[in-house]
């Protein structure tokens, strides 16, 4: 039977050859009628009887049975063996177990190594500061050179910026010494000569990238050695060692107070896009601790100092140290790194320790000059 005959109505009055008489309302029947219409119609195909499923002719039933693997009945699967000791069903009457407690806050660094390195650095600074001032100047110069090396190396690795390290290192060390020997005038002159050396040194290489290389070099010269000269300029005063010690103590107290209060009570982010770990509560802790430390230092360490002056200095240090930390965090985020180096276990690099100190140095130097003079 072709596709066109599926569902078509039968010819009126035709049900195959008939030996019977005519049917009411139907066409005449008989041999003549049968012979006439036999030429105009096709006989229905003879469909053989379909044997029952499972007989010998299952695979030869043709159109009478749809065959193939998709239409075969899968064999019955045996019943799975029932375990002898099945696990008991959970008791739904018992309350669900409580969720595990949230993980405790961690510092994110090796605190043991960080404390050990911090104590060691502090001992070197204190001994050099109160024994021979020239040795302390040398310590600052070495820190500046290492910091410049870290900064220029990261700029080259992450941005392809090749700031000239040789003139920066030589000029930076000379800048620190000039600040101690000649004060602000010596620092400014050495800064200008260092900038000129950077411009000339870069001329020995192809001009491609000259502008970005020298711009990064000038930024590095100002950011690291020039700001560090204010530390050695404090040392020029008669109580210079105590001034430098006050500067260092207040910066450390600011960082420690911000960390301690922020870690324990911090809830509101201070600058989440720059440094997600800093909170406003931590900043308030830094301000409170640093103001108290500033009042004590000005009252008992600085000649002719007053406690109220220390409150103002402490407030200024807390703000400048926080801004310095955020400033370097901005640089590291732009470079896509966490630390500037790996020289100091638990701290990162030298620049990761100078971030708060560098911008705070000119602030403390200026306020001390205003309050108690430069001598």
From TrEMBL:
InterPro entries per the UniProt record, alphabetical: PC_trans
Subcellular localization, as worded in the UniProt entry: Cell membrane
Transmembrane feature ranges: 111-129, 163-181, 187-204, 216-237, 243-262, 283-302, 308-326
One Gene Ontology term, aspect cellular component: plasma membrane
Bias (Basic and acidic residues): 50-63
Reaction(s) catalysed (UniProt annotation): a 1,2-diacyl-sn-glycero-3-phosphate + CTP + H(+) = a CDP-1,2-diacyl-sn-glycerol + diphosphate
EC number of this enzyme: 2.7.7.41
Protein's pathway: Lipid metabolism; Phospholipid metabolism; CDP-diacylglycerol biosynthesis; CDP-diacylglycerol from sn-glycerol 3-phosphate: step 3/3
Membrane topology of the entry: Multi-pass membrane protein
Top enzyme category: transferase
Sequence segments annotated as region (Disordered): 1-109
Family label: Belongs to the CDS family.
Name used for this protein in its record: Phosphatidate cytidylyltransferase
